[in-house]
Amino acid sequence: MIRVVLPAHLRTLARVGGEVELRVDGEVTQRAVLDALEAAYPALRGTIRGHDGGPRRAFIRFFACEQDLSHESPDAPLPAAVATGAEPYLIVGAMAGG
Amino acid sequence: MSQVRVLVGTRKGAFVLNADGKRERWEVSGPFFPGWEIYHVAGSPADPDRLFASQSSGWFGQVIQRSDDGGVTWEPVGNEFKYDGETGTHQWYDGTPHPWEFARVWHLEPAPDDPDTVYAGVEDAGLFKSTDGGQHWAELPGLRTHRSGPSWQPGAGGMCLHTIILDPGHPGRMYAAISAAGAFRSDDHGQTWEPVNRGLRSGGIPDEDAEVGHCVHRMAMHPARPEVLYMQKHWDVMRTDDAGGSWHEISGNLPTDFGFPIGVHAHEPDTVYVVPITSDSHHFPPEGKLRVYRSRTGGDDWEALTRGLPQEHCYVNVLRDAMAVDSLEDCGIYFGTTGGQVYGSADAGDNWAPIVRDLPAVLSVEVQTLP
Fold it and tell me: Which residues are B61's β-sheet partners?
């Protein structure tokens, strides 16, 4: 199972507590994980990326295994540790404010 | 006994304020959607327990929430606002062409006769409609694609469609207002639109009486006399007696005619309310005195309503969607401030009291009158 950590506001919107666990069939890419996330939690559609799988929202970042994957291709394979569930895939609201 | 339910949108969540018809003791619920900007909360006249809320965030974009139990519980519904066809460009602040980009829903206007039908006014200016309780939204593109669209420019708050008025006397007639394009009217259920800005003069644009380009802040109508509309423009309080065919100024003896909201008494079509604000560079009341001004003559002759409102050291603003009236026999009027106060008057503005004092900055206030 893929482990996904959402920012607090999206956990509230999706009505989940801690990590989300998702089954992803086929290659584990950022697009595949987000597709599975939005299928399981339709309220999240449009809040992380555009509808219909559009681009990442400007103040959203994707981290995993201590790497910033935000600018990687959405179709590139995620690290093996994410695909095996050893490490979570982090969806992060960029720090902003004072 | 009748009840009122005041729906408050703030910078950091929504609040629901309930009272019986005396409007003396209030029950405050919320924050709902804490931490999110709630530009507007509105109830369906056809089913008052059905509420819609516009929830947005610079991080996470737009969410629409719906309640079917008067605001006790909420469910997210559809949040895809896709402009229809070619989006084209409007003018940016510097005068260059800028593509239309959806930012947020400013205003929700439920239909009077169908709880599943609701209109949404959005930034960048466009009008959307849902006929399934907010699950799906379709643009009425005739407004955005008006031939004048490429010349529209945003106001300081963005190019927002903030006012939607459905004319109860003329099926298919509706009004919309955009900052800073002006007022528009449709006579065919929103399919086609024409500017209705004749008589407006705006010093901040090259041609003061241009067909479009006016920064309309808010419009209001009394349902019993729908050919009369009142307008708080950036500067100037205006009135039309012929459904927007021509406007004339009714600022009269106001201390300043800059401001944002405008409202009409529920039972007196000639009784109008505004909140004068010093200027567009001083977004606070003149002399630090928070005063609602009321005209009982349809404009020109205004009286200050001050009893119960702070008359010193008050430097809040009252935003365009943050004033509403109930329809009880003694008409109640409510407004919220950028300082987080919501004031109410149960006697048409003669006496005021704070319902709550310390909310986040108030973006919108609506009120429902319930049996």
Answer: B57
